[in-house]
Amino acid sequence: MNKFRPQRLEDLIGNDKIKKILKFEIEAVKKSERTFPDTLIIGDSGCGKTTLAQIIANELNASINIVQAKRIKNNKDILKAIPDAEEGQFYFLFVDEVHEMSIPIQEEFFTMMEDHYLDISDFTTQYEKKNNITLNKVMTNYLTIIAATTKEGLLDIPFRNRFGLELILEKYNQNDIEKIIEKAASKLLTKISNDAIIEIAKRSRGVPRRALALLERLESIAIVKNQIIDTSIAKEAWDLLDIDEMGLTQQDRKVLYTLKLNKPMGLKVLADQTEMSLRSIEVIEPYLVSLNLVERTPQGRLLTLKGKEYLSKRSKKQK
Fold first, then answer.
1. Helix (H, G, I), strand (E, B), or coil: what is residue 99?
2. Rounded Cα distance, 79 and 74, in Å
3. Distance of alpha carbon 103 from alpha carbon 228, whole angstroms
4. Crossing angle for the helix pair 250-260 and 305-318, nearest 10 degrees?
5. Using one digit for the tens of pLDDT, what is the confidence trace for 82-115?
6. Lower Cβ count inside 10 Å, N or C end of the chain?
7. pLDDT, tens digit (0-9, with 9 covering 90-100), for 140-158
8. What is the DSSP letter of 159?
9. What mean pLDDT is reported for the chain?
């Protein structure tokens, strides 16, 4: 899906307020000697946090390294993650799912973000030839930390307060998703009908990454059949992938059927009953709640009346 990823701010669809904020910040950096502010990006999975970080770096012609927070266990890992840059150049470190870093490591980031150095005294000799190392410290004057999270509530408050800029990505509406698909369609190996674009957007759950993944699946079928992506191709894909008009998959329905057959269930019990991981349930559940198919109660998760009606209608269709 990287071929669909926008490279510049002007190519980004949706989140207009964030784009306006970033235009000011980027122009301010270009017109002064200040660095881009350390930035926290909050948003659901697949909604463009990594893309946004790369766009910021692109706009400033700066290098950027991307690292998963859970891979950072100590200062040596931080040093390895910092991108190489020439003296005086801006550079970025993007930490994805930053809430997965331990509190001690978050505290190490305090020093980089406020005092602009990383203490490497425990392993200086191993890295003494690396650029910018002086007196057992790596100077980070031109480094900007961009961190992304889907669970900002798990961040240590002092760490969160170190970010000068906090960006909260909005949910994408149907119209925005259609625009994203339409823009991406220019890079396809085949053409796509407007009706097919709408069909994909309806099943995207409002997540650009999901919409683009579905677009690629339809493209594969269309290439093999040597035709454009139309509603007939879309229908074949939905049947193969078992995705309905609400974007629900076999896994989603497994959760719904499990809740139908049981009393209110806690998250762990629901994961055990469905034989799915806790992480999978945590990803699936918010969408089911947003559709009012599932309700969270003090006693546990419950199937709503709408959820029961959905399963009933589906059963009738299958007969």
1. helix
2. 9
3. 52
4. 120
5. 877 666 678 899 999 999 999 989 988 888 888 8
6. C
7. 678 899 999 999 999 999 9
8. H
9. 89
